[in-house]
Amino acid sequence: MAATKTEHMNKIIAAMDGLKYSTATEQCAIDIAKQTGSHLTGVFLDDFTYSSFTVYQMVQKNDVSEKAIRQYSEKDKKTRDKAAEHFENACRKAGVQYNVHRDRNISIQDLLHESIYADLLVIDQKETFTHYEEKTPTGFIRELLSEVQCPVLLVNKKYIPFEKLILLYDGGPSAVYAVKMFSYLLPSFSSLPADVLAAKGFYGDLHLPDNRLMKELMKRHYPKASYEVLKGQPQTEIISRLKKEKEGTLVVLGSNRRGALSRWFKESMADILMEKIQGPLFVAYHK
Prior knowledge:
The protein is α/β, with parallel strands linked by helices. It is built from ten helices and ten strands. The protein has two domains: 11-155, 3-Layer(aba) Sandwich (Rossmann fold), CATH 3.40.50.620; 164-286, Rossmann fold (3-Layer(aba) Sandwich). The protein has helices spanning 23-36, 55-60, 66-94, 107-116, 139-147, 173-185, 211-221, 234-242, 260-265, 269-276; strands spanning 11-16, 39-45, 98-103, 120-124, 152-155, 164-168, 194-199, 226-230, 249-256, 281-286. The chain has a ten-stranded mixed β-sheet, with helices on both faces. Strand 1, helix 1 and strand 2 form a beta-alpha-beta unit. Helix 1 packs parallel to helix 3 (66-94). The longest helix is centred in the first third of the chain and has 29 residues, at 66-94. The radius of gyration is 21 Å and the shape is globular. It starts with 10 loop residues before the first strand and ends with a strand.
């Protein structure tokens, strides 16, 4: 008996802080869901330990009564409710299929759990889920990237539709895995101009690692891709090269899982790019 044809639909989750709403996350997630015909889930992390006010602020105002705490908490609830409603309205207006989760436990634990059941996670790279602003990469994002169970698209503060792809490639399986995952999840982006960018140190030749095999794979997914091999210290050369790109360029990269001790002493390439470039990144982790 012939198999029946079924419609394939990916599940994208957009991680949202209802107290500090990221318009960039909303716009990027909706745009991708619309282009790919994916289902979008807005995951609002209403962490019960996180509020817009602190005891210190209340002490400064000389009001730490139970009534004041209730008033502040009610104000936060209204802000979060309004944010979720805004997200729903934006999804309806764009005509994408969606639903909303209001997760109320510890933010990082809830989001990691949600990521098990998602094909792609979209999040603002500056998210902290605390009152405080932090330099990128934030503690929350670093912890998320160390344990997340699906590819992640990290947006910056202003969403600009993607017009070009830079695929970072070092000859390792994680880089190839990221290219494949991006192609599977976002096939509509295969028509964009794409550069495969590699760096090989000071003394290597300028041939692409596994040249024949990589180009064979790329021909199937990005037939118009161009190739560039940089000479010099890889991180320095890649950062210098990426700084020349215009807004609207999305960088695709792979990464290997690392233990907590390794993460403490050594930054990943994703960490460095968030700090130095601050552009959108698609990161896929290879075990």
